[in-house]
Design a protein that fits this description.
The chain has 432 residues and is of the alpha/beta class. The chain has 2 domains: 210 residues, UDP-n-acetylglucosamine1-carboxyvinyl-transferase, Chain; 212 residues, UDP-n-acetylglucosamine1-carboxyvinyl-transferase, Chain, CATH 3.65.10.10. Helices cover 29% and strands 26% of the residues. The chain contains 12 helices and 24 strands. The strands form 6 sheets. The chain has a 4-stranded mixed beta sheet with strand order 22-23-1-24, with helices on one face. A 4-stranded mixed beta sheet has the order 2-15-17-16. Strands 4-5-3-14 form a 4-stranded mixed beta sheet, with helices on one face. Helix 1 runs parallel beside helix 3, helix 3 runs parallel beside helix 5 and helix 7 packs parallel to helix 9.
Length: 432
C-alpha cells in the first residue's frame, strides 16, 4: 500500500488503539489459566491475531462473543500441533517460547519477516539449564524445543530485551511447585516487566521482586478458578503518534489512555510537556495542540528512551518540528527491531530534510528549520511508516509512504484515524 499525506490541520476526537503489549500478555495468561477468560476490547493488529493463533495451537479455544469480547477456554498448555508460528511479533516469540516449553512435546518455533533475522541466542543459553532440549539455528529461527520446563533458580542477562523475562515469569508462574527465583542483570525496559507483573497478579499469580534485580515466584493454586475478566488497555505506543500529531498539526483530543498505566511509552508525556506544546491531561482524555498563538515555537528537548525504545519514531517526528537540537538516549536498543531503527530513521527523515546524527548511544535531531514532503519507505517497519506520516502533516508538499501497510502489525486503523481527524490522506493499494 502507498499512502499520500498532504499538509493538514487536524482537529477532533479519537480513541487510542488497543495495546498489543496488554493484549498479548492477556492471551498468554488466559492460555495458562485453568478455566475461562473473557477478554474485553481485544486488539486486531497482526501481532494480536498471531497471539490468538499461538494460544490455539498450544491448547486454548477462542470464541468471539457479544460486545467486542473473546471467550478463551483453556486447561493449560496442551499443544495441538508440533509447530508454533508467532508471525512477526518479537514479544510473541520471546514470551510464548518458554510457555510452549511447558509441554513435553517437541515443538518447532518459527516466525515471519524480520523475526527470522532477530537474535534468539537467549534460548540457547538458558533452556538447557531448565531441562529443555533445544536444536538451534545459530541463534536464529526456526528452533526446536522439547520440555517440560523445570523451574529452577537462575540468573539471566536482561540487556537485550525484557521480553525473554516476561516469558520465563509466566512459565514459572504456571509450573513452580516451590518458591523459585530469577535473578536479572542489566534489565532494560523495566516498565514492561511491571506490566507483566500486573497481568500475572490479575490472574492470581504471586510474584514479588527486589528492585527488578530478582524475582521470587511462589506456587499458585492448581485448582480451577472462576472466570477471569480481563480488559485490554489503550495503547500508549500507538497513542504516542496521535499525541505528537496534535502537538504539531492541530488541536485534538485522544481518549482511552490510562495515565496510571505501567506501559513504558506513557513517558511520551514528559517529552510533550518539555517541548512546549499545549497539553491538558485528564483522567479519561488528553487534549493536545501546538503552542498557543503568540507564544514561542516548539523547542528541542532531551529524553532518555532506554526503557521505552519504541518511542524513538514518534519522538523523531516531534523533534523535527522543535527548534534546536533534540537529544534522545538509548539508540543501542534500536538495532534489532523490525528494521535497524536508528539508521532507518536517519535515512527516511533525511529525505524530508531533517538531519539526524547517531553518536554512540545518542540520537541528535536538528529540527525547527522546516520539514519537506518527500517519497519515503517504511522498510516494512510499522513505526517508521507512522512516524513519516505524522511528520508529513505539516511538511511543505506531500509525503508519499511506500509499503505503508506495515502499520497492520500494531495499528491497522492508523490512517483511518488520521482521516477522522481531518488529515488529508490518500490510500492506494499496490499489486504484486
Amino acid at each position: 500500500m502507498i499512502v499520500t499525506i498532504q499538509p493538514s490541520t487536524i482537529s477532533g476526537s479519537i480513541d487510542a488503539p488497543t495495546s498489543k503489549s496488554s493484549m498479548q500478555r492477556g492471551c498468554a495468561a488466559a492460555l495458562l489459566q485453568d478455566g475461562n477468560t473473557i477478554i474485553s476490547n481485544p486488539g486486531k493488529s497482526n501481532d494480536d491475531l498471531a497471539a490468538l493463533e499461538v494460544i490455539k495451537i498450544l491448547g486454548a479455544t477462542v470464541t468471539e462473543i457479544e460486545d467486542n469480547k473473546l471467550l478463551i477456554k483453556s486447561a493449560g498448555v496442551n499443544a495441538a500441533s508440533n509447530e508454533m508460528n508467532c508471525g512477526e511479533s518479537g514479544l510473541g516469540i520471546r514470551m510464548f517460547t518458554p510457555i510452549a516449553a511447558l509441554s513435553p512435546q517437541q515443538i518447532t518455533i518459527n516466525g515471519t519477516g524480520s523475526l527470522l533475522t532477530r537474535p534468539m541466542d537467549f534460548f540457547d543459553e538458558i533452556f538447557p539449564a531448565l531441562d529443555i532440549s533445544i536444536q538451534s539455528n545459530s541463534g536464529k529461527l526456526p528452533i526446536k524445543i522439547q520440555g517440560p520446563l523445570q523451574p529452577k533458580d537462575i540468573t539471566i542477562d536482561g540487556s537485550l530485551s525484557s521480553q525473554f523475562l516476561t516469558g520465563l515469569l509466566m512459565a514459572y508462574g504456571k509450573a513452580a511447585t516451590t518458591p523459585v527465583t530469577i535473578t536479572v542483570t542489566n534489565l532494560k525496559s523495566k516498565p514492561y516487566i511491571d506490566l507483566t507483573l500486573q497481568v500475572m497478579k490479575h490472574f492470581g499469580y504471586d510474584v514479588t521482586h527486589n528492585n527488578h534485580q530478582s524475582f521470587l515466584i511462589n506456587p499458585s493454586s492448581k485448582t480451577a478458578r472462576q472466570t477471569i475478566n480481563y480488559t485490554v488497555e489503550g495503547d500508549w505506543s500507538g497513542g504516542a503518534f496521535l499525541l505528537v500529531a496534535g502537538a504539531i498539526a492541530g488541536k485534538i483530543t485522544v481518549k482511552g489512555l490510562d495515565t496510571y498505566s505501567t506501559q513504558a511509552d506513557k513517558a511520551i508525556l514528559k517529552a510533550l510537556m518539555d517541548c512546549g506544546c499545549t497539553i491538558s491531561i485528564q483522567e479519561k482524555q488528553i487534549d493536545i495542540a501546538p503552542p498557543a498563538t503568540g507564544t514561542s515555537a516548539l523547542k528541542a528537548f532531551h529524553f532518555d528512551a532506554t526503557d521505552c525504545p519504541d518511542l524513538f519514531p514518534p519522538l523523531v517526528a516531534l523533534a523535527a518540528y522543535c527548534s534546536g537540537t533534540t537529544v534522545i538516549e538509548g539508540v543501542n536498543r534500536l538495532a534489532h527491531k523490525e528494521s535497524n531503527r536508528g539508521l532507518t530513521l536517519q535515512q527516511e527523515f533525511g529525505k524530508m530534510g531533517i538531519e539526524i546524527i547517531l553518536q554512540d548511544n545518542l540520537m541528535l535531531i536538528k529540527g525547527g528549520s522546516g520539514v519537506t514532503g518527500a517519497p519515503v519507505h517504511s522498510h516494512h517497519d510499522h513505526r517508521i511508516a507512522m512516524a513519516n506520516a505524522v511528520a508529513g502533516l505539516q511538511a511543505t508538499g506531500q509525503t508519499i509512504i511506500e509499503e505503508a501497510s506495515a502499520i497492520n502489525k500494531s495499528y491497522p486503523e492508523f490512517f483511518e484515524h488520521l482521516k477522522k481527524l481531518n488529515a488529508v490522506v490518500g490510500l492506494q493499494a499496490t499489486t504484486i
